[in-house]
Amino acid sequence: MTFFKYLWPLVVCAALLGCGPSKPKYTFTKEERQPAQAAGEKRKRVEPPEDFEQMLARGQIPAIDAPKYVSASEAEIPDEDFVLGVLVEGQPIAYSLNLMNNHEVVNDCVADKNFAVVW
């Protein structure tokens, strides 16, 4: 039951943040989305610091697609661990942050609503 002690604040926050307008108030033009650049000028590559070591190439952390769910009583998550909670169409869902640290993105669909959970 301690699991839900940490879940309900996240569910409330997710519900409140999701109550905004469905359309953006302003749509940026193509020119506004692109950084200012003189005609024909190429973008300058920014080099990483000398002691920088890249562990994984870009795009090498696999996302979780179509996750499988278990009830809170079946979940093998210790009481002291944190979860990322969302509320979709009245359905509360919790994602283990220990699992999210290894995958960073969950592509999910609940009640015919597609969404991504990003950590």
Concise description?
This protein is of the alpha+beta class and 119 residues long. The protein is 23% helix and 22% strand. The protein is built from 3 helices and 5 strands; from the N terminus they run H-H-E-E-E-H-E-E.
Detail the topology: elements first, then pairings.
Elements: H1 2-17, H2 30-33, E1 64-65, E2 83-88, E3 91-96, H3 97-103, E4 105-110, E5 113-118
Parallel strand pairs: 1-4
Antiparallel strand pairs: 2-3, 4-5
Q: Tags for this entry?
A:
119 residues, alpha+beta, three-stranded mixed sheet, two-stranded antiparallel sheet, 3 helices, flat
Structural class: alpha+beta
| Beta-strand content | 15-25%
- Order of secondary-structure elements: HHEEEHEE
The residue fraction in helices comes out at: 10-25%
Average residue pLDDT: 75
Instruction: Enumerate the strands of the largest sheet in spatial order, edge to edge or round the barrel.
Output: 1-4-5
Distance between the termini: 24 Å
Tally of helical segments: 3
Unreliable stretches: none
Overall geometric form: flat
| CA gyration radius, whole angstroms | 20 Å
Count all strands and give the number. 5
Give a quick account of the main beta sheet: strands, pairing sense, barrel closure. 3 strands, mixed
What would you note in describing this structure?
The protein has 119 residues and is α+β, with helices and mostly antiparallel strands. 23% of the residues lie in helices and 22% in strands. It has helices at 2-17, 30-33, 97-103, and strands at residues 64-65, 83-88, 91-96, 105-110, 113-118. The strands form 2 sheets. A 3-stranded mixed β-sheet has the order 1-4-5, with no helix packed on it. The protein has a two-stranded antiparallel ribbon with strand order 2-3. The model has no long low-confidence stretch (mean pLDDT 75).
